[in-house]
Amino acid sequence: MTATLALDALQKSFGAGPVVDGISLTVEEGEFLTLLGPSGCGKTTTLNLVAGFLSPDGGRIAIGGRDVTDVPPHHRDIGLVFQDYALFPHRTVAENVGFGLRMRKVGRAEIKSRVAEALALVQLEGLADRRPGQLSGGQRQRVALARALVIRPSVLLLDEPLSNLDLKLREDMRLEISSLQRRLGITTILVTHDQGEALVMSDRVAVMRGGRIAQVADPATLYTRPANRFIADFIGAMNFLPCRTQEACPEGAVGLVALNGQVLPAMAPRALGPGMPAMLAFRPEQAKLASMPGNALRLEGRVDRIAYLGGRTELHLVTEAGACVVDVASGVGLPGLGEPVMLTVSASDCLVFPVEP
After folding, report:
1. Torsion-angle region of residue 309: left (phi > 0), alpha (psi -120 to 50) or beta?
2. Global pTM?
3. Distance (Å, whole) CA 59 – CA 50
4. Which end of the chain is more exposed for a tag (fewer CB within 10 A), N or C?
5. 128 to each of 85, 110, 148, 157, how far by Cα in Å?
6. What span, in angstroms and rounded, lies between the C-alpha atoms of 316 and 287?
């Protein structure tokens, strides 16, 4: 019930410029891959090309080794969950879930059995006779998921499926969906602009920008070793402070940078030449308000703003090298507004990027 999905040099333009600009990507059998990026980056267009709702201007789409580039949507063996669920309001839950099977001329007895099986998968066994208007947002989302799964597709496509849910339900449902996907082992592509969803749910994430894939990696690699400043800034929170390279920094290697009279090593995801203006980057949770042994960035500053987030507190600092944020555990002993602080960051947690527009 699962297959490899391969995109080869996929292209699509609307008007003047390309929206999808030569994307090549392979999603392995049973893999959960997310297309992540800001609005207008081409992720939804890519999904619509895979689904068959749009025809590419160039390139190829293959599912399980079979070229489906020119195959209509209903013959691609794909299940799709839409952003707005697209349920029929006048039909019952069971009728909505069984719709795709009826279109495929499946027998009545088998439809009944497979609908019951699909509803059990999404924990809606007792709601088969209700209509969508009688369901909560989370229940409607489950109905849409059951309808996509009941046809037993080789590939499951999820188009911003959680965007209409409130925060708590969204967090619950992303765990439920990822758990169900792993249990079924179905090849899945999720489209989202929500980095939290991408990091929690995915085996790999493809970050898109301007119709192209900027980086494909597992969530931990994306977070700790972003390939460029755009990804570093888009995935999670990141501090950037201006610096200058002291020596050539080869791609993927450590080089020396100078910042505020200090020289320290930093990892360079992209190559930089000597004496270049650059940006030193580190995550808010990597900074400490305490001395640190070994190579470390040390900056004096003061607390400009405090954001209490429950178990964590964000301290917004003004330092001698620029503004930055420190994420610390909430509790007693934290500095107050205007108080002086000493910020330290281990050199092993620092990245250096070229200055980009």
Report:
1. alpha
2. 0.90
3. 11
4. C
5. 17, 16, 16, 24
6. 12
In the chain the first and final C-alpha atoms are separated, in Å, by 46
Structure tokens given for 213 = 């894939």
Q: What is the pLDDT of residue 316?
A: 96
Query: Which stretches in the chain have pLDDT values below 50?
Result: none
Amino acid 279: pLDDT = 96
State the pLDDT at residue 312. Answer: 92
> What are the C-alpha distances in Å from 230 to residues 175, 195, 206, 268, 304?
27, 13, 13, 14, 26
Paired strand residues for 329: 312
Region for 144 from its dihedrals, namely left if φ exceeds 0, alpha if ψ lies in -120 to 50, beta otherwise: alpha
pLDDT of residue 357: 57
- Domains of the chain plus CATH, in order, are 5-229 (3.40.50.300), 237-354 (2.40.50.140)
Please tell me the predicted confidence (pLDDT) of residue 137: 84
- 112: number of Cβ within 10 Å: 14
